[in-house]
Amino acid sequence: MTEKSLPQQHIPVMCDRVIELLSPALNVSNPVLLDATLGLGGHSEALLKKFINLKIIGIDRDQTALDRAQKRLGELANRVQFVNETYDQITKILEDKKVNAVLLDLGVSSIQLDEANRGFSYAQDAPLDMRMNSKDSLTAAQILNNYEAKELTYILRTYGEEKFAKRIAQEIVKQRSIKPFVTTFELVKLIKDVIPAPARRTGGNPAKRTFQALRIAVNNELQILEKAIPQAMAALVVGGRILVLSYHSLEDRIVKNAFKSQSSIIDALPGLPVLLSKNIAPFELVTRKAEQASNEEISANPRATSVRLRVAQKVAVAA
Length: 319
Known about the structure:
The protein is of the alpha/beta class. It has 16 helices and seven strands. The termini are far apart.
């Protein structure tokens, strides 16, 4: 992938809607946005162009993505602080600073899918790696070759929502006793052989769910997200907004529950005086339910197919 082709290959999902929903929080003097999943910087680029005084703190665990984003942004990069870290370290990174908006575009990024040697894609033969940060120790191959069948079943069923999880796990254990798994196509072949033919005819590539599950397990994605959302919400000024783009039900459920938990009115106990500051939830939902991309956008950008967008706005300081 050349730098010249990068902008055409990386299209930020629901970009116009992201700008529209974050605008009320960013139409202030010297706004600051925390882009907690910077990736290739598509959303940040659009926001920097829209808001000429905007400064961005961009986090990504993948140093390669940060380097590519900096090149993509060009002179706009002067208004970005690039941070190589997982986004569950928001509190440490901000050091008590508050921001006007937080953006999280979850899941695997374009750069990770496009670089075959990273092992994220079931459509390209590559080492079974799947690490978003190459400095991390755990790889997909290590999980496949060392975890017990019960652990593998849990990962595939929980993170991939794979109904043939047990069957796939048992076959993995059987085949690795003959030869350890090394490449993505070895795993793809196993999955195609194990899943019944009628089930392979619908829902796209049958390896999709297993690859998703392994990627989530390798990168500890859901646990990081659960830790990050409360930190991101706490980092907002009153009037600030948090916007999250999720790509599967597990991510969206975590976001939905986190937003709901801080957007419900807290009832006073019977017989006790009502303290207004404790009777108002610190957040209100800007999107009452998850928004999806239009059919037109999905046609132009297939990555938008499964996206779910949610926004919440801080309306009070939590008691």
